[in-house]
Design a protein that fits this description.
This is Iron-regulated ABC transporter permease protein SufD. Helix 2 packs antiparallel against helix 7 and helix 8 packs across helix 9. The chain has 444 residues and is of the alpha/beta class. It has one domain. 22% of the residues lie in helices and 37% in strands. The two termini are 35 Å apart. The radius of gyration is 21 Å and the shape is globular.
């Protein structure tokens, strides 16, 4: 049973405006005050997107924006070791960074990385020596036109900051946990991540959000990734939260020449999840990879909006999104590829394939290409259908139950979107979640 909140019902937009001065006064760092106020004004001018906006025509935000939220989460928690251990991926050899109710908890974290600058976002803002870094990078690629990115700038306080110096290779993946627990009221988080990977450096990050309460949690997250020449940055998003959570995720990645950046998004849970993903090419010989697996049911909604901006020649981008929808679940995919007139020899691939398991499930898919160069290889496509009856019959004729046969076919369908995961515990976790969501016990 979802708990009700004692906060008087007030539309979220009004709460945002009303709470802002109190939020600013709660901060120790004030050098962003002018930027925060300007962002709030931009948000106030446009408000939340509605279904009249082209980018949100298939995603209704009313159930989010008509609730009341607490903007100042309680810091106290009683997370047990057993609860936390269940969130792990079998990652004893990883590093992990744990935020509970917005605050970094070192006693729950394990950080062995060396030769890097790692700080909580809040601490980095308070640290004078990092002011120059923030002025150079912070909010330079995040959109200033979108309501949620402006809202995040106005209210961001919690999150993860990592700068990997030139030629440093971080061997262990880093798992960043955002946990909400012990909140008696619906709670609103604006998390912020900043990753800077300098020339020749390499890093892999896993990000996951977890709500332990029955109250609603709304997380509005913004991540900025900067990948420099010959550097490699992988960011894996594992979205498997409960049915009282809303996640608006905005990720912006800027790449310099000869770099490789991957963002994998695995969406298995949450009441409403919106993923906005923008790649900006700022040099030649760049490789960008975006993969996604969505498997949801009941009345869940997952919306993927991607964009790749090919601004230089001889670059490649690859998008591969798979969706499996049951119950009354609704999926959205809108993938865009922009090829500038100077971006000759571009190779851009975009594919979205979906399986509907019930009559109530639906998917709105719209791959798009805008090409202004003439020497390119660009392709896009989408499919929506049901399981292949011949393949299902073939498996059942060999003594496999209908449920297991369906699961095997669906696993094979989704599997190629996992091929570039080189973190074995993560790949194993995704496989287990697929089996769990499909309701079967299969060893992979």
């Amino acid at each position: 049973m979802v708990q009700t909140t004692d906060i008087p019902v007030m539309a979220l937009k009004e709460q945002i405006i009303e709470n802002h001065n109190e939020f600013l006064e709660s901060l120790r760092h004030r050098f962003l005050d002018d930027s925060r106020k300007a962002a709030l004004q931009r948000f106030q001018n446009v408000g939340f997107p509605t279904k009249k906006d082209e980018e949100y025509k298939y995603t209704n935000l009313k159930e989010i924006t008509e609730k009341s939220y607490n903007f100042f989460p309680k810091e106290s928690h009683n997370i047990t070791k057993e609860q936390f251990d269940e969130l792990h991926l079998g990652e004893e050899n990883f590093d992990w960074i744990v935020f509970v109710n917005g605050k970094l908890h070192k006693e729950l974290s394990k950080v062995s990385i060396e030769n890097v600058e790692f700080l909580s976002f809040n601490y980095a803002l308070n640290d004078e020596k990092h002011k120059e870094v923030f002025e150079k990078y912070f909010n330079t690629i995040a959109s200033k036109e979108q309501a949620f990115t402006n809202l995040n700038l106005a209210y961001c306080k919690y999150g993860f900051f990592l700068k990997v110096p030139k030629n440093v290779v971080i061997e262990k993946p880093i798992h960043v946990f955002y946990i909400s627990q012990n909140q008696e009221e619906n709670t609103f988080y604006n998390t912020r991540n900043l990753l800077i990977v300098e020339e020749g450096a390499k890093v892999e990050v896993i990000e996951s959000h977890h709500n332990f309460d029955s109250t609603y949690v709304l997380t509005n997250s913004v991540t900025e990734i900067f990948t420099y020449p010959n550097a490699k940055a992988d960011w894996h998003k594992l979205q498997n939260d409960n049915n009282t959570t809303y996640l608006i995720d905005n990720t912006f990645a800027r790449q310099e020449k000869d770099s490789l950046t991957t963002v994998n998004t695995f969406s298995f849970g949450g009441k409403l999840v919106r993923n906005n993903l923008d790649f900006i090419h700022n040099g030649s010989n760049i490789n960008s990879f975006m993969n996604g697996i969505t498997i949801i049911g009941k009345d869940q909604l997952v919306d993927h909006h991607t964009a790749v901006h090919h601004n230089f020649p001889n670059c490649e981008s690859y998008q591969n999104y798979k969706g499996i929808f049951d119950g009354n679940a609704h999926g959205v995919f809108n993938g865009k590829v922009f090829v500038d007139k100077i971006a000759q020899k571009t190779n851009a691939y975009q594919q979205n394939n979906n399986v509907l398991l019930s009559e109530g499930a639906s998917i709105d898919t719209k791959p798009q290409l805008e090409i202004f160069a003439d020497d390119v290889k660009c392709s896009h496509g989408c499919t929506v259908g049901q399981l292949n009856e011949d393949a299902l019959f073939y498996l059942r004729a060999r003594g496999i139950s209908k449920k297991e046969a369906q699961a095997l076919l669906l696993y094979a369908f989704a599997n190629d979107a996992m091929q570039n995961i080189d973190i074995e515990p993560l790949k194993e976790k995704i496989s287990k979640l697929l089996a769990e969501k499909l309701g079967v016990d299969i060893e992979f």
